[in-house]
Amino acid sequence: MQINELSESRLRELARIHPDDARVLSVFLSLDPSGFAVPPARATEISSVMDDAHRRARENDGLSHNARKALEEDMDRARSFLRDFSAKGAHGLALFACGPADLFEPIRLPRPIETRAVIDDSPFVEPLVELLRTGDNWVVALVNRQVGRILRGDRDRLEELDVIEDDVHGQHSQGGWSQARYQRSVDEDVQDHLKHVADALFLHFKRRSFDHLLLGGPQETVTDFEGKLHPYLGERLAWRIDIDVENSHPDEVCAAARPKIEELDRAAVAAALERLREGVAKGARGAAGLDDVLEALNERRVETLLLNLGFTGAGCSCSQCGSVYARDGGQCPADGTPLDCRDDVIESAVHLALEQSARVLVVREEGHRAELQSHGGIGAVLRF
Fold it and tell me: What is the Cα gyration radius of the chain?
Protein backbone atom coordinates (compact mmCIF):
# COMPACT_ATOMS: atom_id res chain seq x y z
CA MET A 1 0.00 0.00 0.00
CA GLN A 2 1.23 3.49 -0.87
CA ILE A 3 2.25 5.66 2.06
CA ASN A 4 1.13 9.25 1.51
CA GLU A 5 3.06 12.41 2.35
CA LEU A 6 1.92 14.87 5.00
CA SER A 7 0.06 17.84 3.52
CA GLU A 8 -2.35 20.46 4.79
CA SER A 9 -4.90 19.64 2.09
CA ARG A 10 -5.05 16.01 3.21
CA LEU A 11 -5.45 17.05 6.85
CA ARG A 12 -8.46 19.12 5.82
CA GLU A 13 -9.99 16.08 4.12
CA LEU A 14 -9.35 13.90 7.18
CA ALA A 15 -10.86 16.51 9.50
CA ARG A 16 -14.13 16.30 7.59
CA ILE A 17 -14.53 12.56 8.27
CA HIS A 18 -17.15 11.93 10.97
CA PRO A 19 -18.57 8.42 10.48
CA ASP A 20 -21.96 7.48 11.95
CA ASP A 21 -22.00 4.70 14.56
CA ALA A 22 -18.25 4.06 14.18
CA ARG A 23 -14.92 5.01 15.70
CA VAL A 24 -11.72 6.04 13.95
CA LEU A 25 -8.41 4.50 15.00
CA SER A 26 -5.45 6.91 14.82
CA VAL A 27 -1.99 5.44 15.42
CA PHE A 28 1.21 7.49 15.63
CA LEU A 29 4.57 5.78 15.49
CA SER A 30 7.98 7.34 16.14
CA LEU A 31 10.69 6.19 13.75
CA ASP A 32 13.43 8.34 15.24
CA PRO A 33 16.66 6.76 13.96
CA SER A 34 18.32 7.28 17.34
CA GLY A 35 15.83 4.99 19.05
CA PHE A 36 14.15 2.83 16.44
CA ALA A 37 16.75 2.35 13.74
CA VAL A 38 16.66 -1.46 13.86
CA PRO A 39 13.66 -3.75 13.20
CA PRO A 40 13.53 -5.31 16.70
CA ALA A 41 13.15 -1.90 18.32
CA ARG A 42 10.41 -0.94 15.86
CA ALA A 43 8.64 -4.26 16.45
CA THR A 44 8.60 -3.63 20.21
CA GLU A 45 7.25 -0.11 19.66
CA ILE A 46 4.52 -1.38 17.32
CA SER A 47 3.48 -4.11 19.73
CA SER A 48 3.28 -1.60 22.57
CA VAL A 49 1.17 0.96 20.73
CA MET A 50 -1.25 -1.65 19.37
CA ASP A 51 -1.67 -3.20 22.82
CA ASP A 52 -2.53 0.31 24.02
CA ALA A 53 -5.06 0.63 21.18
CA HIS A 54 -6.78 -2.60 22.26
CA ARG A 55 -6.90 -1.35 25.84
CA ARG A 56 -8.49 1.91 24.73
CA ALA A 57 -11.02 -0.02 22.66
CA ARG A 58 -12.07 -2.05 25.71
CA GLU A 59 -12.51 1.19 27.69
CA ASN A 60 -14.58 2.80 24.94
CA ASP A 61 -18.08 2.52 26.35
CA GLY A 62 -21.31 2.89 24.44
CA LEU A 63 -20.22 1.26 21.19
CA SER A 64 -22.75 -0.78 19.25
CA HIS A 65 -21.93 -4.36 18.32
CA ASN A 66 -21.20 -3.35 14.72
CA ALA A 67 -19.01 -0.41 15.75
CA ARG A 68 -16.96 -2.54 18.13
CA LYS A 69 -16.55 -5.31 15.54
CA ALA A 70 -15.40 -2.78 12.91
CA LEU A 71 -12.93 -1.27 15.36
CA GLU A 72 -11.45 -4.66 16.16
CA GLU A 73 -11.02 -5.32 12.43
CA ASP A 74 -9.34 -1.93 11.99
CA MET A 75 -6.89 -2.73 14.79
CA ASP A 76 -6.04 -6.11 13.29
CA ARG A 77 -5.46 -4.55 9.89
CA ALA A 78 -3.34 -1.77 11.42
CA ARG A 79 -1.17 -4.23 13.33
CA SER A 80 -0.62 -6.28 10.17
CA PHE A 81 0.30 -3.19 8.13
CA LEU A 82 2.69 -1.82 10.75
CA ARG A 83 4.42 -5.17 11.03
CA ASP A 84 5.25 -5.27 7.29
CA PHE A 85 5.61 -1.67 6.08
CA SER A 86 8.93 -0.13 4.99
CA ALA A 87 10.15 2.70 7.21
CA LYS A 88 12.66 3.93 4.63
CA GLY A 89 12.81 7.71 4.41
CA ALA A 90 10.38 8.36 7.28
CA HIS A 91 11.00 9.70 10.78
CA GLY A 92 7.45 8.99 11.90
CA LEU A 93 4.20 7.46 10.71
CA ALA A 94 0.52 8.26 11.18
CA LEU A 95 -2.10 5.66 10.37
CA PHE A 96 -5.86 6.31 10.24
CA ALA A 97 -8.32 3.43 9.99
CA CYS A 98 -12.11 3.17 9.93
CA GLY A 99 -13.68 0.40 7.87
CA PRO A 100 -17.23 1.87 7.87
CA ALA A 101 -15.81 5.13 6.46
CA ASP A 102 -13.66 3.25 3.90
CA LEU A 103 -10.59 4.82 5.52
CA PHE A 104 -7.19 3.21 5.82
CA GLU A 105 -4.45 5.74 5.25
CA PRO A 106 -0.80 5.72 6.29
CA ILE A 107 1.05 9.06 6.17
CA ARG A 108 4.82 9.38 6.22
CA LEU A 109 6.05 12.07 8.63
CA PRO A 110 9.18 14.21 8.16
CA ARG A 111 9.93 14.38 11.89
CA PRO A 112 9.60 12.04 14.89
CA ILE A 113 6.30 12.05 16.76
CA GLU A 114 5.16 10.71 20.11
CA THR A 115 4.07 7.09 19.75
CA ARG A 116 0.44 6.65 20.81
CA ALA A 117 -2.99 5.40 19.75
CA VAL A 118 -6.24 7.38 19.84
CA ILE A 119 -9.80 6.12 19.33
CA ASP A 120 -12.31 8.86 18.63
CA ASP A 121 -15.28 9.78 16.45
CA SER A 122 -12.98 11.33 13.81
CA PRO A 123 -9.29 11.17 12.78
CA PHE A 124 -7.02 12.70 15.43
CA VAL A 125 -5.07 15.23 13.35
CA GLU A 126 -3.84 17.74 15.96
CA PRO A 127 -0.33 16.21 16.30
CA LEU A 128 0.10 16.47 12.53
CA VAL A 129 -0.93 20.12 12.51
CA GLU A 130 1.90 20.72 14.97
CA LEU A 131 4.31 19.09 12.51
CA LEU A 132 3.24 21.38 9.69
CA ARG A 133 4.94 24.71 9.34
CA THR A 134 4.23 27.60 7.05
CA GLY A 135 6.11 26.65 3.92
CA ASP A 136 6.00 22.88 4.32
CA ASN A 137 5.10 22.88 0.61
CA TRP A 138 8.49 23.98 -0.67
CA VAL A 139 10.02 23.12 -4.03
CA VAL A 140 13.65 23.69 -4.96
CA ALA A 141 14.62 23.79 -8.63
CA LEU A 142 18.33 23.54 -9.46
CA VAL A 143 19.35 24.31 -13.01
CA ASN A 144 22.48 24.75 -15.07
CA ARG A 145 23.05 24.67 -18.84
CA GLN A 146 22.51 20.91 -19.12
CA VAL A 147 20.85 19.57 -15.96
CA GLY A 148 17.74 20.43 -14.02
CA ARG A 149 16.72 18.93 -10.67
CA ILE A 150 13.40 19.32 -8.85
CA LEU A 151 13.15 18.60 -5.11
CA ARG A 152 10.21 18.96 -2.74
CA GLY A 153 9.78 18.98 1.03
CA ASP A 154 10.28 21.22 4.04
CA ARG A 155 13.04 22.65 6.23
CA ASP A 156 13.99 19.20 7.52
CA ARG A 157 13.87 17.04 4.43
CA LEU A 158 13.84 17.38 0.64
CA GLU A 159 13.02 14.53 -1.71
CA GLU A 160 14.23 14.46 -5.30
CA LEU A 161 11.26 14.34 -7.68
CA ASP A 162 12.81 14.72 -11.10
CA VAL A 163 16.11 15.05 -12.95
CA ILE A 164 16.07 16.58 -16.44
CA GLU A 165 19.17 16.21 -18.62
CA ASP A 166 19.43 17.59 -22.14
CA ASP A 167 22.15 17.16 -24.73
CA VAL A 168 23.67 20.63 -25.08
CA HIS A 169 26.68 21.02 -27.42
CA GLY A 170 30.00 21.96 -25.90
CA GLN A 171 31.99 25.14 -26.57
CA HIS A 172 33.36 25.49 -30.15
CA SER A 173 37.08 26.20 -30.40
CA GLN A 174 37.30 27.61 -33.96
CA GLY A 175 37.01 31.28 -34.72
CA GLY A 176 35.21 33.31 -37.37
CA TRP A 177 31.67 32.91 -38.67
CA SER A 178 31.72 29.20 -37.94
CA GLN A 179 32.21 29.84 -34.23
CA ALA A 180 29.45 32.46 -34.14
CA ARG A 181 26.96 30.13 -35.80
CA TYR A 182 27.93 27.28 -33.54
CA GLN A 183 27.62 29.46 -30.46
CA ARG A 184 24.12 30.51 -31.51
CA SER A 185 23.24 26.83 -31.82
CA VAL A 186 24.60 26.14 -28.33
CA ASP A 187 22.65 29.08 -26.89
CA GLU A 188 19.47 27.81 -28.53
CA ASP A 189 20.07 24.36 -27.04
CA VAL A 190 20.50 25.91 -23.59
CA GLN A 191 17.31 27.93 -23.90
CA ASP A 192 15.42 24.81 -25.02
CA HIS A 193 16.81 22.98 -22.00
CA LEU A 194 15.69 25.72 -19.61
CA LYS A 195 12.23 25.68 -21.17
CA HIS A 196 12.16 21.90 -20.76
CA VAL A 197 12.95 22.21 -17.03
CA ALA A 198 10.40 25.03 -16.58
CA ASP A 199 7.71 22.92 -18.25
CA ALA A 200 8.56 19.92 -16.04
CA LEU A 201 8.38 22.14 -12.95
CA PHE A 202 4.96 23.46 -13.95
CA LEU A 203 3.73 19.91 -14.58
CA HIS A 204 4.70 18.98 -11.01
CA PHE A 205 2.85 22.07 -9.79
CA LYS A 206 -0.31 21.06 -11.66
CA ARG A 207 -0.13 17.56 -10.22
CA ARG A 208 0.28 18.88 -6.68
CA SER A 209 0.54 22.60 -6.00
CA PHE A 210 3.12 24.11 -3.68
CA ASP A 211 3.47 27.43 -1.87
CA HIS A 212 7.08 28.50 -2.30
CA LEU A 213 9.84 28.02 -4.86
CA LEU A 214 13.59 28.33 -4.43
CA LEU A 215 16.03 28.37 -7.36
CA GLY A 216 19.68 27.37 -7.40
CA GLY A 217 22.42 27.37 -9.99
CA PRO A 218 24.78 29.73 -11.86
CA GLN A 219 23.45 33.27 -11.62
CA GLU A 220 23.19 33.96 -15.36
CA THR A 221 21.47 30.62 -16.04
CA VAL A 222 19.02 31.06 -13.16
CA THR A 223 18.13 34.55 -14.40
CA ASP A 224 17.32 33.12 -17.85
CA PHE A 225 15.35 30.33 -16.21
CA GLU A 226 13.21 32.76 -14.20
CA GLY A 227 12.02 34.31 -17.46
CA LYS A 228 10.65 30.95 -18.58
CA LEU A 229 8.63 30.20 -15.44
CA HIS A 230 4.85 30.10 -15.68
CA PRO A 231 3.32 33.16 -13.93
CA TYR A 232 1.87 30.88 -11.21
CA LEU A 233 5.42 29.76 -10.39
CA GLY A 234 6.82 33.27 -10.61
CA GLU A 235 4.34 34.32 -7.91
CA ARG A 236 5.76 31.64 -5.61
CA LEU A 237 9.42 32.44 -6.16
CA ALA A 238 10.97 33.13 -2.76
CA TRP A 239 14.75 33.19 -3.13
CA ARG A 240 17.89 31.85 -4.77
CA ILE A 241 20.39 29.54 -3.12
CA ASP A 242 24.06 29.07 -4.00
CA ILE A 243 24.74 25.37 -4.52
CA ASP A 244 26.31 22.87 -6.90
CA VAL A 245 23.53 21.76 -9.25
CA GLU A 246 24.74 18.33 -10.28
CA ASN A 247 26.70 16.99 -7.30
CA SER A 248 24.80 18.16 -4.21
CA HIS A 249 23.01 15.53 -2.14
CA PRO A 250 19.37 16.36 -1.22
CA ASP A 251 20.49 16.80 2.41
CA GLU A 252 22.97 19.46 1.28
CA VAL A 253 20.26 21.19 -0.75
CA CYS A 254 18.00 21.11 2.30
CA ALA A 255 20.73 22.64 4.47
CA ALA A 256 21.21 25.45 1.95
CA ALA A 257 17.46 26.11 1.74
CA ARG A 258 16.72 25.88 5.48
CA PRO A 259 17.71 29.45 6.49
CA LYS A 260 15.32 30.99 3.97
CA ILE A 261 12.50 28.62 4.87
CA GLU A 262 12.94 29.41 8.57
CA GLU A 263 13.04 33.13 7.81
CA LEU A 264 9.73 32.98 5.97
CA ASP A 265 8.25 30.78 8.71
CA ARG A 266 9.06 33.47 11.27
CA ALA A 267 7.80 36.23 9.00
CA ALA A 268 4.47 34.46 8.45
CA VAL A 269 3.90 33.97 12.19
CA ALA A 270 4.93 37.56 12.91
CA ALA A 271 2.51 38.86 10.25
CA ALA A 272 -0.34 36.77 11.66
CA LEU A 273 0.38 37.99 15.19
CA GLU A 274 0.39 41.59 13.98
CA ARG A 275 -2.98 41.11 12.31
CA LEU A 276 -4.28 39.49 15.49
CA ARG A 277 -3.00 42.36 17.61
CA GLU A 278 -4.60 44.97 15.32
CA GLY A 279 -7.86 43.04 15.09
CA VAL A 280 -8.19 42.66 18.85
CA ALA A 281 -7.30 46.32 19.45
CA LYS A 282 -9.95 47.51 16.99
CA GLY A 283 -12.54 45.04 18.22
CA ALA A 284 -12.91 43.49 14.77
CA ARG A 285 -11.29 40.68 12.79
CA GLY A 286 -9.41 39.41 15.82
CA ALA A 287 -10.33 36.99 18.60
CA ALA A 288 -8.16 36.20 21.64
CA GLY A 289 -8.60 33.63 24.38
CA LEU A 290 -10.33 30.27 24.25
CA ASP A 291 -13.92 31.52 24.64
CA ASP A 292 -13.77 34.11 21.86
CA VAL A 293 -11.79 31.90 19.50
CA LEU A 294 -14.21 28.99 19.85
CA GLU A 295 -17.14 31.32 19.27
CA ALA A 296 -15.50 32.57 16.05
CA LEU A 297 -14.80 28.99 14.95
CA ASN A 298 -18.43 28.01 15.56
CA GLU A 299 -19.50 30.97 13.42
CA ARG A 300 -17.10 29.90 10.63
CA ARG A 301 -15.34 33.27 10.67
CA VAL A 302 -11.73 32.16 11.23
CA GLU A 303 -9.11 32.81 8.58
CA THR A 304 -6.03 31.88 10.66
CA LEU A 305 -5.94 29.98 13.97
CA LEU A 306 -2.86 30.54 16.12
CA LEU A 307 -1.93 28.15 18.94
CA ASN A 308 1.04 28.14 21.26
CA LEU A 309 2.85 24.83 21.05
CA GLY A 310 1.33 22.48 23.62
CA PHE A 311 -1.70 24.69 24.32
CA THR A 312 -4.62 22.81 25.89
CA GLY A 313 -8.05 23.84 27.09
CA ALA A 314 -10.97 22.03 28.68
CA GLY A 315 -14.41 22.31 27.15
CA CYS A 316 -17.23 20.54 25.37
CA SER A 317 -18.20 19.66 21.83
CA CYS A 318 -21.50 18.89 20.15
CA SER A 319 -21.64 15.54 18.36
CA GLN A 320 -24.51 16.77 16.19
CA CYS A 321 -23.30 20.09 14.74
CA GLY A 322 -19.60 19.96 15.66
CA SER A 323 -19.62 23.21 17.64
CA VAL A 324 -17.08 23.57 20.46
CA TYR A 325 -17.50 25.47 23.72
CA ALA A 326 -15.29 26.38 26.67
CA ARG A 327 -17.94 25.32 29.15
CA ASP A 328 -18.64 22.47 31.53
CA GLY A 329 -21.59 20.39 30.43
CA GLY A 330 -25.10 21.31 29.47
CA GLN A 331 -26.74 21.38 26.06
CA CYS A 332 -25.52 22.78 22.77
CA PRO A 333 -26.93 26.31 22.37
CA ALA A 334 -27.29 25.69 18.64
CA ASP A 335 -29.39 22.49 18.62
CA GLY A 336 -29.93 21.34 22.22
CA THR A 337 -27.79 18.20 21.94
CA PRO A 338 -26.12 17.13 25.23
CA LEU A 339 -22.51 18.27 25.10
CA ASP A 340 -19.55 15.88 25.26
CA CYS A 341 -17.04 17.33 27.74
CA ARG A 342 -13.29 16.74 27.53
CA ASP A 343 -10.15 17.82 29.33
CA ASP A 344 -8.82 19.15 26.02
CA VAL A 345 -11.01 20.40 23.16
CA ILE A 346 -8.18 21.83 21.06
CA GLU A 347 -8.31 18.84 18.71
CA SER A 348 -11.97 19.68 18.03
CA ALA A 349 -11.03 23.33 17.52
CA VAL A 350 -8.37 22.36 15.00
CA HIS A 351 -10.92 20.19 13.18
CA LEU A 352 -13.30 23.14 12.96
CA ALA A 353 -10.53 25.35 11.62
CA LEU A 354 -9.50 22.84 8.95
CA GLU A 355 -13.10 22.21 7.93
CA GLN A 356 -13.58 25.91 7.19
CA SER A 357 -10.27 26.06 5.26
CA ALA A 358 -8.62 28.18 7.92
CA ARG A 359 -4.86 28.23 8.21
CA VAL A 360 -3.50 26.73 11.43
CA LEU A 361 -0.21 28.07 12.80
CA VAL A 362 1.45 26.42 15.78
CA VAL A 363 3.68 29.06 17.40
CA ARG A 364 7.04 27.71 18.54
CA GLU A 365 9.52 30.56 18.91
CA GLU A 366 9.82 31.97 22.43
CA GLY A 367 9.26 35.62 21.51
CA HIS A 368 6.18 34.84 19.44
CA ARG A 369 4.91 32.45 22.11
CA ALA A 370 5.16 35.20 24.71
CA GLU A 371 3.13 37.56 22.55
CA LEU A 372 0.43 34.99 21.89
CA GLN A 373 0.40 34.09 25.59
CA SER A 374 -0.57 37.69 26.29
CA HIS A 375 -3.72 36.89 24.30
CA GLY A 376 -4.38 33.71 26.27
CA GLY A 377 -2.19 31.32 24.28
CA ILE A 378 -4.73 31.05 21.45
CA GLY A 379 -5.96 33.59 18.93
CA ALA A 380 -7.65 33.90 15.56
CA VAL A 381 -7.47 36.29 12.64
CA LEU A 382 -11.03 36.60 11.35
CA ARG A 383 -12.43 36.87 7.84
CA PHE A 384 -15.20 39.23 8.94
Answer: 25
Nearest residue to 117 via CA among 26, 24, 45, 36:
26
* Mean pLDDT, the chain cut into blocks of 10 residues (384 residues total): 77 90 94 69 88 90 90 96 79 93 91 90 88 69 95 86 83 52 73 94 90 93 95 93 93 93 88 95 92 95 94 90 86 89 89 88 92 96 94
The pTM of the whole model exceeds 0.90: no
Cβ contacts of 261 within 8 Å, gap of 6 or more: 133, 135, 138, 154, 155, 212
CATH class given for the domain over 285-382: alpha beta
Q: Which of the listed CATH numbers 1.10.3720.10, 3.30.420.60, 3.40.50.10780, 3.40.50.80 matches domain 138-264? A: 3.30.420.60
Q: In terms of CATH architecture, what is 4-131? A: 2-Layer Sandwich (3.30)
Q: Are 134 and 269 in contact (CB under 8 A)?
A: yes
With a CB cutoff of 8 Å and minimum separation 6, the contacts of 264 are 134, 135, 212, 238
